Amino acid sequence: MKRAIVVKGNSNSGKTTVLNDLYDWVKRTYNVNETFYKDHHNKDFESVMQIGKLEISFFTQGDYGHEVDRFLKDAIARNSDIIICCCRARGATSKAIDLNLIYPHFLVDFTRVHQVTPVSLPTFITQKLDELVCRLTGLS
């Protein structure tokens, strides 16, 4: 069954950081065949990877609606098993998720990250990473 994980939050809330950490965890944990990788700069990237027969599409650039829209359409057309991406709390990127993501999805909410002090932000991101790892492990 197709699934998606979406990290949703305001700008500079840690969405890209937690997805980069999740990507690194997947590459350390599984025998990954990365069939596509594109650096979008500023720590953002796009990746398609195979783990056995399972295809995972990653996209960390959640700032531009047209890019999220393009990524989702491409991943769905490729028939990816798992889509992992992020979007802003509102606006064009959030709308792109609402309009295009036809897979059942799990939403990780970063919108209240402003209530986290800078000292506890790494702890918050680690907790969210643990949550994502549990979700991803359950999907594979």
Q: Can you give a write-up of this model?
A:
With 140 residues, the chain is α/β, with parallel strands linked by helices. The chain has one domain (3-139): Rossmann fold (3-Layer(aba) Sandwich). It is 40% helix and 30% strand. It contains four helices and six strands. The chain has helices at 15-29, 65-77, 92-100, 121-139, and strands at residues 3-9, 33-41, 44-51, 54-59, 82-88, 105-109. A six-stranded mixed sheet has the order 2-3-4-5-1-6, sandwiched between helices. Helix 1 packs across helix 4 (121-139).
What are the defining features of this structure?
140 residues, alpha/beta, Rossmann fold, 6-stranded mixed sheet, 4 helices
Précis, in short:
The chain is of the alpha/beta class. The chain contains four helices and six strands.
Fold blueprint:
Blueprint lengths: L2 E7 L5 H15 L3 E9 L2 E8 L2 E6 L5 H13 L4 E7 L3 H9 L4 E5 L11 H19 L1
Parallel strand pairs: 1-5, 1-6, 4-5
Antiparallel strand pairs: 2-3, 3-4
Helix pairs in contact: 1-4, 2-3
